[in-house]
């Protein structure tokens, strides 16, 4: 196991607000000593539609494939609100992770999100809430921000974010930029998330080491059981016909046929 864990920031950003937050979160994570890689999800809109929506060129950040998620120790998702939920681009990418689901490749990895919306009542909380089904099905462990940063209590000015995650308010025409307070909230989320990731990474390394030490003591018992096994088989006459398929066999077959890619 490498000394520093890898955190992937996977985002979609049409007008750049989520990208700004992603870079802020990257700085916060790196300050805690974790490795960070930034990725965008693939665009699903045509150039023509993007032009009509007034989207600027995409940032120079690699586009992720589902398989690459395996290499991450933890994943942070950058998500701009669409109708109070995740945009089609994020959903399309998550829908391409069926193979990872089938192999349990993401199970047990820490995860969280950060968001942006046009208005301050536009659905930042529901956007993160709507990621939970994906996280649960993958066995990803969602770490909320909580009220970890004092700016979340600020009522003097508009501040994006909530107990669910850091966030920014872009305004209806996208003209508002990520504020210093929102950057501070994002840094707090990054710091707390990194600490969790580091604790988990170190804990896993300790467990792996302890299990290696335990191995020689377990081997003789396993060997004894193996040696005893043929004698048992000899005592039991083999059935003339193969055993009937049980209900659980059928279920297993059904599951393995299920949407595995
Ligand atoms: C189709 C569409 C739906 C949107 N739905 C919402 C919404 O429900 N609530 C809201 O506050 N903003 C909404 N917005 C505004 C976006 O959330 C905002 O443009 C985005 O957060 C800016 O992030 P970005 O600069 O990273 O793209 C919507 C924008 C589009 C294009």
UniProtKB/TrEMBL annotation:
Taxonomic superkingdom: Eukaryota
Basic and acidic residues bias locations: 224-236, 244-255
InterPro entries listed in its UniProt record: Flavodoxin/NO_synth, Flavoprotein-like_sf, Flavoprotein_WrbA-like, FMN_Rdtase-like_dom
Matches recorded under PROSITE patterns: FLAVODOXIN_LIKE (PS50902)
GO MF term (any one): NAD(P)H dehydrogenase (quinone) activity
GO CC annotation terms, alphabetical: membrane
Pfam families: FMN_red
Domain Flavodoxin-like stretches: 7-193
Region of interest: Disordered: 210-261
Family that this chain belongs to: Belongs to the WrbA family.
Name of the featured protein: Flavo protein-like protein
Organism per entry: Absidia repens
Lineage of the organism: Eukaryota, Fungi, Fungi incertae sedis, Mucoromycota, Mucoromycotina
């Amino acid at each position: 196991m490498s000394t520093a864990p890898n955190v992937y920031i996977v985002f979609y950003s049409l007008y750049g607000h989520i990208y700004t937050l992603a870079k802020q979160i990257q700085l916060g994570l790196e300050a805690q000593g974790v490795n960070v890689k930034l990725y965008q999800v693939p665009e699903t809109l045509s150039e023509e539609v993007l032009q009509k929506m007034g989207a600027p060129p995409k940032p120079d950040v690699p586009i992720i494939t589902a398989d690459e998620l395996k290499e991450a120790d933890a994943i942070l998702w950058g998500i701009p609100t669409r109708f109070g939920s995740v945009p089609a681009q994020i959903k399309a990418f998550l829908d391409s992770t069926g193979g990872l689901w089938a192999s349990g490749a993401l199970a047990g990895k820490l995860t969280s999100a950060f968001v942006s919306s046009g208005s301050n009542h536009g659905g930042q909380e529901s956007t993160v809430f709507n990621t939970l089904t994906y996280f649960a099905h993958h066995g990803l462990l969602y770490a909320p921000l909580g009220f970890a940063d004092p700016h979340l209590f600020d009522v003097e000015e508009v501040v994006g974010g909530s107990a669910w995650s850091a966030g920014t308010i872009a305004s209806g025409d996208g003209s508002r930029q990520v504020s210093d307070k929102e950057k501070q909230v994002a840094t707090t989320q990054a710091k707390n998330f990194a600490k969790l990731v580091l604790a988990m990474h170190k804990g896993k390394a300790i467990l792996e080491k302890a299990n290696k030490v335990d191995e020689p003591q377990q081997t003789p018992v396993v060997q004894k059981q193996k040696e005893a096994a043929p004698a048992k088989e000899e005592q039991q006459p083999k059935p003339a016909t193969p055993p009937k398929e049980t209900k659980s066999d059928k279920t297993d077959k059904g599951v393995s046929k299920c949407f595995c890619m």
